[in-house]
Amino acid sequence: MRSIKELAGIVSKEIENCLGSVSDEAFQKGLREIEAADQIFVAGAGRSGLAIRGLAMRLMHAGKKVHVVGDVTTPKITEKDLLIIGSGSGSTEALQCYAKKCKNIGARLLLLTIVPESPIGALADSIIRIPAPSSKARNAAETTDSLQPMGSLFEQSLFILGDCLTLEYMEQHRLNGEDMFQAHHANLE
Predict the structure, then answer these.
(1) Which residues are known to be catalytic?
(2) Among 74, 79, 85, 105, which residue is least crowded by beta carbons within 10 Å?
(3) Distance of alpha carbon 163 from the chain centroid
(4) In 97-117, which positions are buried (b, 16+ CB within 10 angstroms) versus exposed (e)?
(5) What is the pLDDT of residue 125?
(6) β-pairing, 39-44 with 65-68?
(7) What tens digit of pLDDT does each residue of 174-188 get?
(8) Model confidence pTM above 0.85
(9) 4-184: which CATH topology?
(10) Please, which residues bridge with residue 126 across strands?
(11) Residues 6+ apart with CB under 8 A from 81
């Protein structure tokens, strides 16, 4: 039986190896997309959807106007806005519909995925490839190894990538966590 310390070490090393393989150029381009957008919309399904919501929350804390697709208060997207989709396979049907609608309206699309050559990838203006293995992305080239089931490494890496994007955004805007907390953290708690 393995200890929690050993298991946490395995998972942490997998995330480090995976995100260490992400292109700095793609990361910076994604950051520029976030910077340029008037409003940001995020979408994902399942555990990827949970991870992408974490990015939405932190970008809101950093002062961006951010919305989760499908929430009842989500406004319309315009050509000045950015849709960020988190999808390991890049082929989830509902997310493909959002991507097509986004492009028809003229908004920008940033895809965070394992498979850049996916249907959503074909529509994306920018792609950050997360080279994690997943049973939904078996055709993906050059993925890192993982002992974890299904898409766990992708979902974990997606969450951490969101935090990395936020950290770099904070650096560029000279923001700190305390200021963000005071300015934008929920107070109806």
Answers:
(1) 155
(2) 79
(3) 9
(4) ebbeebbeeebbbbbbbbbbe
(5) 98
(6) parallel
(7) 999 998 998 899 988
(8) yes
(9) Rossmann fold (3.40.50)
(10) 110
(11) 37, 38, 39, 40, 41, 107, 108
